[in-house]
Amino acid sequence: MGVRGKLVLVCILGVLICSSNLFMFSEAVWLNLPASGTKCVSEEIHSNVVVLADYVVVSDDHSHVPTISVKVTSPYGDNLHHKENVTHGQFAFTTHETGNYLACFWLDGHIGGSGDVSVSIDWKTGIAAKDWDSVARKEKIEGVELELRKLEGAVEAIHENLLYLKTREAEMRTVSELTNSRVALFSIMSLGVCIAVSALQVWHLKHYFQKKKLI
Prior knowledge:
Blueprint: H1 3-22, E1 26-33, E2 39-45, E3 50-59, E4 68-73, E5 79-86, E6 88-94, E7 99-107, E8 117-125, H2 132-139, H3 144-211
Helix pairs in contact: 1-3
């Protein structure tokens, strides 16, 4: 293989690696917790998706790290994770229904001092939540082959998202067509009522004038 061929191969591998990293859906979130009350973060996720999140308390007062409570619920209110009096932790689950998954954090008791208390959340979904190191050890792959596996996972995730969007589009189209048909029916009914009322008024006026011998 010549120098030009090697350069082309390196460029292709670079594109594949960048593409696989691009579709690693991971989000780092910071929440400033009030002294009283709850702060929540949510994400709309469709079914059969792996979710993995790590959280840790970060306080300005390094001599005392306050504890927090954490509760994660599904779109239907099912409890997926609940911990109290912790400074860090992790939750992982596979979604069973489509909708908003909610993670709420609040401080345990009264926190003295003026220092701010924050929670760092590393929220991962889909292929970003997959343990690729374990996959590499189990299947004895590394380097370019591992990056190709990541890219394959990214392509599958994109395909699933496209199917999900297609399904949502079909549902929205059905709702829109049903709404349009109801609006058209209501318009026809309103027009019929107006015509009937107008005809009744004309008949009543004609009958009144005839009774008064005005016509």
